[in-house]
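Tutorial handout. Part one gives the primary structure; part two gives the three-dimensional structure as tokens.
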Amino acid sequence: MGARLRVFLTREQDQTLLTLKKADVPQKVKDRAEVIRLNAHGWYVEKIAAHVNWTSQTVREVLHRWEKQGLNGLWELPGRGGKAKWKQEDIVFLEETLKKEPRTYNSVQLAQKLESERSIKLSPDRLRRVLKKRGLIGNGLGKATKENKTP
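Part two.
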């Protein structure tokens, strides 16, 4: 068995990690902060792993990241997945097109227009999801209120 892994915190670091517990941050960050605090208060890696229901290796990785990166090591790095093929300017272009032209478009026609004028190839389904997320699809604001509900 190797040497015991232990981190030491200053009073300010401990207070910062404690405030993260109540802050509006992802749950993973809160869990990592708790792991670091427990280790600094004398808990063994195996005991921490059992307490938070992680493997010992995961606890060790968190502690090593804390030693190397400090507070920044608590957050995830940006994902490695596929990047968006479109930019905000492309969607703004579509919004302006929809406002200026009197005709209506379906998602297939909008995808064709985006490809022909901006050289952005986006499937109609993906385009529909992007526009829906921005709140551009539908008849109204998308929020039900007491005034517009039917009895």
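Part three, for discussion. Confidence is low (pLDDT under 50) at residues 138-144. DSSP finds seven helices and no strands in the chain.
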